[in-house]
Amino acid sequence: MDYLTGVRQKETLEISELLLNAEAGQKVHVNGAVHTIRDMGTVAFVILRKREGLLQCVYEEGIAGFELNGIKEAATVEIEGTLEKNEKAPNGIEIRMEKLRILSEPADERMPLAISKWKLKTSLEAKLNYRAISLRNVRERAKFRIQEGLIRAFRDFLYSQGFTEIHTPKIGAKGAEGGANIFKLDYFHRPAVLAQSPQFYKQMMVGVFDRVFETAPVFRAEKHNTKRHLNEYTSLDLEMGYIDGFEDIMAMETGYLQYAMRLLSSDYAKELQILDITLPKVGQIPAVRFHEIKEAVSEKYGHKMRNPFDLEPEEEQLISRYAKEEWDSDFVFVTHYPSKKRPFYAMDDPEDTRYTLSFDLLFRGMEVTTGGQRIHDHRMLTEKIEARGMTEEGMEDYLAAFKHGMPPHGGLGIGLERLTMKLAGEDNVRETTLFPRDLSRLEP
Amino acid sequence: MDYLTGVRQKETLEISELLLNAEAGQKVHVNGAVHTIRDMGTVAFVILRKREGLLQCVYEEGIAGFELNGIKEAATVEIEGTLEKNEKAPNGIEIRMEKLRILSEPADERMPLAISKWKLKTSLEAKLNYRAISLRNVRERAKFRIQEGLIRAFRDFLYSQGFTEIHTPKIGAKGAEGGANIFKLDYFHRPAVLAQSPQFYKQMMVGVFDRVFETAPVFRAEKHNTKRHLNEYTSLDLEMGYIDGFEDIMAMETGYLQYAMRLLSSDYAKELQILDITLPKVGQIPAVRFHEIKEAVSEKYGHKMRNPFDLEPEEEQLISRYAKEEWDSDFVFVTHYPSKKRPFYAMDDPEDTRYTLSFDLLFRGMEVTTGGQRIHDHRMLTEKIEARGMTEEGMEDYLAAFKHGMPPHGGLGIGLERLTMKLAGEDNVRETTLFPRDLSRLEP
Question: Using an 8 Å Cβ cutoff, are A217 and B170 in contact?
Fold first, then answer.
């Protein structure tokens, strides 16, 4: 019988440890994947890829106690050597190699993609086909560190605001939003669907915890094949009770974005630099009414309105352009969407019931959030269900929460991959999705 | 056009704000759901349910500027009154009510469950049927705050250990573990499955980030109807490269558990008290070999071994009892599981290939984690696939990662609901699942 007492101390050092705790001339052990080897004749550079970045190791005959051709690209190795300062090396340090231990060797060292180039110059298609390889490129993987910062900030900010994290089922009997875009499956010989959103569940949980959030996958069987749609994505959802109006929800999102930008600046500065990202200012976010901004951009840019009830992608771009030009903001809330384009549970504006107390957040030309106040009154809810010609069947549990009392509430859903995409300046959401699912892509 | 500048300051105070920032005699505004009303004749107590707990409000004729029968149970209200100290009230404070504003009223105030009782005395079946209501009971909801602490600790601890959070697809072409327990669905006229685990993806991502984790739902179409199985649950998964052995994985889990218990003690003390939970000591966790502990409990407790290759539930209980009696530990690692009961990617023990470099963690009589070292060598992996009579078809992308080099690595998966269940002293995993999915339960 042995005892495990906690994380084991390693002899090998990470890059941050080399920078903080080690001194030039010191003997160190490091490990990593051989990212690339540059043989300059008398000297060679072996670049290790580690989780914190690249580490330059120097091979010199006579000093290294092994042959250079003992190292293959894509092998993983442990190296013993001397730490030295070198301004030209990544992070200003390098290791003069003395001993080598091979940890693993590739079966095939001819990589399908030139991952050691600074920018991976290949098609999106190739990047996705060889996903486990393309993400080894330092810039490609950095996007997903930024994504981590965004979701981490969402949770940490909401914990600080008294929210409780919940986990709601993805398999259910009926979709929350209705419509045709639902994946169906067989659940022990019963028909079931995959959740399009945690909408019903997060509302029910407002009656329990007042404020809740969930960060989880959602599934949309939409037959769109566009640069902005995915059939499975990570949704950042929150729902909060005791609101005075839907402005409380927009204010909470503004607070989140402010927090996220601060976290990225402090903890993900390296990745921001690798990707050459300039963070948007989020001091204040303008909010403007749907029909007013539609008219404003139509007038200012000579855009012809085709659909008075929804925003076309081109209009989203124009509204963002308008917000940048007029208010110097990368973000803009568009409020009071037409009732007929919002789901039944959306709260209509009592001052004009053709519109709802709802909003979208546009970021650099694209919708990244949909939110608003919900109906909390049981009778109002059942009347709206009836008025829409819908049935209460399958919504009994949802409606029971309202029957037995629910506070005024609202919430939002943010598409994590889209938010990452616009922040990273990408033009296809697949670029910021680890393993995208779309009409044609079910693998890898 | 308006501006949103961040979270809006509320006039209403939360319980922690009343305790920290308000003084006896001060006029305050509070809101909440009417949990219960106790009319004592000359005086009445209106107990508000708020996210931080219960708040006692006192109704006295002459002081309150409204009628007591203006308040219904299950309504949500905003109250203006005077803060007073009262040792007998929850948190030692109460509000003498002066003004009342009704925020919402229930359509039906006859609650299906007596949620204001300290312990909800009803069947599990009833609790699950009225989930949105039963969770309004203070003890019922506290379990899910503990669950939050466990998952939050997992992420925070792993961030601190250099892990990157990933989001892998739940819809795929092929299951990672194989076998019959896979939910199937139609994906735009192509056969697809729901992920049983993120196994293949997290391994592929070890080649990218060295250390990764994911906290997400997994789906198992198992036809078990037991107290410990769910068909959908939240899996806490990690995978780490550059390990010296599978002991590194167990040590990381030990570190996580130590961190989690500290976080629960500091940030969830209220819920621990509500549930009367005594946290287990996690100074060190004993690790013992599968065949040795099987023999030891057989001998000590006279248990008859039926299956030499797996642990029966009864054996898990006996092993935990043994660990408690012999080593005073609520946790015990059982290591070196038989190869034939572990998946193809498990690393066999080079010293005896009938066993694997793997482990389960048992906690108070039940398996809550499965983990181990994986095969990282491409050839060893393909040979094992062949030896098992499996096909590489559908695993090309997974195998490509190995072909092009992977470090020695391993990982684990923890069932969040089971861990919560054993910590909370429940005997059915449904008690600690927000909306369980099992053979008969697809709603709510």
Answer: yes
A-chain residues within 8 Å CB-CB of B283?
5
Window 64-83 of A: residues touching B by CB (8 A cutoff) are 74-76
pLDDT at B180: 74
**Is beta strand A358-363 parallel, antiparallel or unpaired with respect to A366-373?**
antiparallel
Q: Which tokens belong to B139?
A: 């003890």
C-alpha R_g of chain A: 26
What is the reported pLDDT for B175?
67
Q: Which pLDDT band, with edges at 50, 70 and 90, does A176 fall under?
A: low
CATH, residue B24:
2.40.50.140
B98 and B161 fall within a common domain: no
* Contact by Cβ (8 Å): A84, A63: no
Domain match, B80 and B154 both: no
Determine, for residues A221 and B188 on separate chains, whether the beta-carbon distance falls below 8 Å: yes
A229 neighbors A144 (Cβ within 8 angstroms): no
Give yes or no for a contact between B443 and A393, defined as CB atoms under 8 angstroms apart: no
Q: How many domains does chain B have?
A: 2
Q: Is 80 exceeded by the pLDDT of residue B177?
A: no
Over the Cα atoms of chain B, what is R_g?
26
Which of the four pLDDT bands, split at 50, 70 and 90, describes residue A178? low
Say whether B5 and A284 touch across the interface (CB within 8 A): yes
pLDDT digits (tens, 9 = 90+) for A191-248: 999 999 999 999 999 999 999 999 999 999 999 899 999 999 999 999 999 999 999 9
On chain A, the residues whose CB falls within 8 A of the CB of B31 are 242, 407
* pLDDT tens string A63-91: 999 999 999 999 999 999 999 999 999 99
* Residue-level pLDDT at B305: 86
**Predicted pLDDT of residue B414:** 98
- Regarding whether B143 and B38 lie in a shared domain, the answer is no
B128 falls within a domain: no
Give the separation between CA A422 and CA A363, rounded to whole angstroms.
7
Q: CB distance from B295 to chain A under 8 Å?
A: no
B165 and B39, same structural domain? no
B54 touches chain A (CB under 8 A): no
Q: What is the pLDDT of residue B178?
A: 66
φ, ψ dihedrals at B174, nearest 5°: -150, 145
Tell me how close the Cα of A146 comes to any Cα of chain B, in angstroms: 10
Q: Select from B167, B212, B295, B336 the residue whose CB has the most chain A CBs within 10 Å, as the one to mutate to test that interface.
A: B167
CB contact under 8 A, A286 and B188: no
On whether any CB of chain A is under 8 Å from the CB of B372, the answer is: no
Residue B294: which residues within 8 A CB-CB, separation 6 or more? Answer: B305, B308, B311, B315
Does one domain contain both B89 and B146? no
A152 and A61 within one domain: no
Residues spanned by the domain of A86:
15-104
pLDDT at B176: 63
Do A331 and A419 lie in one domain? The reply is yes
